[in-house]
């Protein structure tokens, strides 16, 4: 009698191990060694990055999630260290949408981008462009909802400082930070207070939204009363 648990005709891709090749390549090409390689070889930055991307594709399609993450993050880090934020964002979007890309790798790449956003030397215009792109890329991705909320809050505050209060209010209204379980209470309260402040600044135009924001804050405070932060 045939085993009822046997799946006839099913095809399962065996996970490949590219850890040794990844370690060897990353020892040679990384954000620290690239300036030296650019001076000592005839290769361009794109040539060096392409070597990382080639192995990243092999590891990703082979099911080697850890090697894929290491290579993808290093590509993002290379462009971040080089200060080429525009290329960094293009590569980030490309890698985020690749077939077979794991949530773990996506989260790690977003975390690497966050390092650039926290850089005080980043011009205000560039900071806004980076924030707008990562807010878009992390939207509706539950595994990076906390990062999405933090990016959106930073972007809303930047919009507010530029006088775009309505756009900032619209952005914060769609977050629903009270439902993000892994966000610290202090951050939630700060975001809700920011939303209320923005609503008050043009309350004659948006009384309904102001009431909803205030009720959301009160309801959340009551539900979390006595809980540790």
TrEMBL record:
* The protein's name in its UniProt record: Putative proteasome regulatory non-ATP-ase subunit 5
Could you tell me which Pfam families the record lists for this protein?
A: PSMD12-CSN4_N
Q: Could you name the Gene Ontology cellular component terms for this entry?
A: cytoplasm; proteasome regulatory particle, lid subcomplex
Per UniProt, residues of the PSMD12/CSN4-like N-terminal domain are: 48-200
What keywords are annotated for this sequence in UniProt? Proteasome
Has keyword Chloroplast? no
């Amino acid at each position: 009698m045939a085993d009822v648990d046997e799946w006839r005709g099913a095809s399962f891709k065996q996970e490949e191990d590219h850890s040794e090749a990844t370690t060897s390549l990353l020892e040679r090409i990384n954000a620290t060694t690239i300036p030296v390689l650019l001076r000592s070889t005839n290769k361009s930055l794109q040539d060096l990055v392409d070597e990382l991307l080639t192995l990243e594709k092999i590891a990703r399609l082979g099911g080697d999630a850890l090697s894929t993450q290491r290579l993808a993050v290093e590509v993002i880090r290379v462009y971040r260290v080089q200060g080429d934020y525009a290329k960094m964002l293009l590569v980030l979007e490309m890698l985020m949408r690749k077939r077979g890309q794991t949530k773990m790798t996506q989260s790690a790449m977003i975390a690497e981008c966050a390092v650039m956003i926290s850089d005080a030397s980043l011009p205000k215009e560039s900071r806004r462009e980076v924030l707008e792109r990562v807010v878009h890329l992390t939207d509706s991705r539950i595994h990076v909802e906390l990062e999405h909320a933090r990016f959106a809050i930073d972007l809303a505050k930047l919009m507010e400082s530029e006088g775009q209060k309505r756009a900032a209010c619209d952005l914060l209204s769609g977050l629903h930070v009270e439902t993000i379980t892994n966000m610290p209470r202090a951050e939630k309260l700060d975001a809700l207070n920011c939303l209320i402040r923005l609503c008050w600044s043009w309350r004659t135009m948006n009384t309904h939204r102001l009431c909803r924001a205030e009720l959301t804050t009160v309801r959340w405070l009551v539900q979390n009363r006595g809980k540790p932060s």
